[in-house]
Design goal:
The complex is a heterodimer of chains A (395) and B (69). Chain A is of the alpha/beta class. In chain A, 27% of the residues lie in helices and 27% in strands. Chain A has helices at residues 13-24, 39-48, 66-74, 77-80, 103-114, 147-159, 224-227, 243-253, 271-278, 373-394; strands at 4-8, 30-33, 55-58, 61-64, 93-99, 119-123, 135-136, 145-146, 164-167, 171-175, 181-185, 190-198, 202-204, 220-221, 235-239, 258-262, 283-286, 289-296, 300-307, 313-317, 320-323, 327-329, 359-361. In chain A, strand 18 and strand 19 (300-307) form a beta hairpin. Chain A starts with a strand and ends with a helix. By secondary structure, chain B is mainly α. Chain B has a single domain (2-68), classed as Glutaredoxin (3-Layer(aba) Sandwich), CATH 3.40.30.10. Chain B is built from 4 helices and 2 strands; from the N terminus they run ααββαα. Chain B has helices at residues 2-9, 22-31, 53-59, 61-68; strands spanning 40-43, 46-49. A two-stranded antiparallel sheet of chain B has the order 1-2. The longest helix of chain B is centred in the middle third of the chain and has 10 residues, at 22-31. Chain B is globular. Classes of the chains: A alpha/beta (395), B mainly alpha (69). Chains A and B meet through loops of A and helix 2 of B.
């Protein structure tokens, strides 16, 4: 029998995948549909030695199912077998594809490239949340280092191993089932890989009040370290009562004119920070107040706050409002696919495995406690080593 | 990142530090319709808030055209 023959069965997901894969690559095939107990099924078992559709034969020779088909294609053996002959249609098969460029993703990249795994890293940026702070004083080996320098050092170290990096690209969809995983970016590029490491970190939690979204970058800010200098001499508000809010107030107190701190609860941060903020002369604190609106046309002019005790609504004239009410995991893309906890963090075991084989997660996007740069970096290393173990067992 | 991008492209540009220069901050907010974030990049009257390399690449085409003419 010449060419590709595919035995398929109705309702079998990998049959559909195999067919669409071949169609996508422009490879012709003849399909034989089998039903339980049918003669064609007997024929399939006889020819391939397997009763699990899909079963694929190339020039009469059984090659296996969907994963084996994709594998043959990736390793360009399909060309030799007379299937596809389109050079461009044969993409690279990566051992490890890492999503995220913070400490977890970068360290995963470092460890996997040192294990000589073919690695690619896809990320919006390099540094992740580290880029949102000014300096770090608790990374072993550095008593005090500016985050820009630390990120450069991370990047240079990874660069030494020459891994492929796609910065500024966003992963928009993927197919994580099967031995070969498929990852698609917003620019429409498709990547195939044996393992995926998700290291997408966290992002600031929005307030979700009217005016907030519309005025982002127009006075609404989520990173005091980055944006405080743009508000020198201005009156600003900080929403939140935890450590990050208190630190934002301390940052802003150096440059802004007057700072209103608005917290839904009594201040909950470290006593040392609360004492510091309480001692600042240009700070007014509103506890047990809800922030209900951000007002302004082209830029922020006011915020509306409401007392939880008296229900009294008042407005504060400000040019900026810093929202510091915690973080959300960047797990939206996997929320339907992987198991997550109540906070939306991906649940992993102690070797960074998720519920899907070949899919690992590490760093702040996961359920591990204590979100710290050094912990994220360590988890990245663990995820890469775990992926390495998994790949070794596959081969 | 944006500065590096422009330098690599060999494009001459003027950088204003809006954290130190109040007039530049005011001008930035005016041309961008109220943006108070960095970077804001203006090329041939096209104003981009933030840094999108693909869009900037397109915006830079106006410079090519004007030198060709």
């Amino acid at each position: 029998m010449e060419g590709i023959t595919l035995y398929s069965m109705g309702g079998c997901p990998f049959c559909i995948k195999a067919k669409s894969f071949l169609k996508e690559k422009g490879i012709g095939f003849s399909e034989i549909k089998v039903k339980p107990g049918s003669k064609k099924r007997e024929e399939m078992i006889e020819k391939t030695g397997s009763d699990l559709p899909p079963q694929i034969l190339i020039d009469g020779e059984p090659v296996g199912g969907y994963s084996e088909l994709v594998n043959l294609f990736m390793t360009r053996k399909l060309d030799e077998k007379g299937g596809a002959n389109n050079e461009l249609a044969s993409p690279v098969l990566y051992d490890v594809l890492i999503i995220g460029g913070g400490p977890a993703g970068l360290n995963a990249a470092l460890y996997s490239s040192r294990k000589v795994l073919k690695t690619i890293l896809i990320s919006n940026n390099i540094g992740g949340q580290v880029a949102d702070t000014y300096d770090i004083e608790n990374y072993l080996g550095f008593s005090q280092i500016e985050t820009a320098d630390l990120i450069n050092k991370f990047d240079e170290h990874v660069e030494k191993y020459g891994i492929e990096k796609l910065i500024g690209e966003k992963v928009t969809s993927f197919d994580l089932t099967g031995k070969i995983k498929k990852v698609v970016t917003g620019k429409g590029n498709t990547y195939y890989c044996r393992t995926v490491i998700i290291a997408t970190g966290k992002r600031p939690r929005p307030l979700n009040v009217p005016g907030e979204k519309e005025l982002i970058g127009r006075g609404v800010a989520y990173c005091s370290t980055c944006d405080a200098p743009l508000f020198s001499g201005a009156d600003v508000a900080v929403v939140g009562g935890g450590n990050s809010a208190l630190e934002a107030v301390i940052d802003l107190a150096k440059v802004a004119n007057k700072i209103f701190m608005v917290s839904l609860t009594p201040l909950t941060g470290d006593p040392i920070l609360i004492n510091k903020v309480s001692s600042l002369s240009n700070v007014s604190i509103f506890t047990k107040h809800d922030t209900t609106k951000v007002l302004g046309d082209s830029s922020v002019k006011e915020i509306e706050i409401k007392s939880l005790d008296t229900r009294e609504v008042s407005r504060l004239k400000v040019e900026g409002v810093f929202i510091e009410i915690g973080l959300l995991p960047n797990s939206d893309i996997v929320i339907d696919t992987l198991e997550t906890n109540q906070q939306g963090e991906i649940i992993i075991d102690n070797v960074c495995r998720t519920g899907i084989t070949g899919v690992f997660a590490c760093g702040d996007v996961t359920s591990i406690p204590y979100k710290q740069v050094i912990i994220a970096a360590g988890e990245g290393a663990k995820a890469a080593l775990s992926a390495y173990d998994y790949l070794n067992k596959q081969r | 990142m944006a500065k590096e991008f422009l330098s690599k492209k060999g494009v001459e540009f003027t950088a204003y530090d809006v954290t130190k220069d109040r007039d530049a901050l005011k001008e930035m907010m005016e041309v961008s319709g109220g943006a108070r974030t960095v970077p804001v990049i203006s090329v041939c009257n096209n104003v981009m808030v933030g840094f999108d390399p693909d869009r900037l690449e397109l915006d830079l085409n106006c410079l090519k055209q004007s030198t060709e003419i």
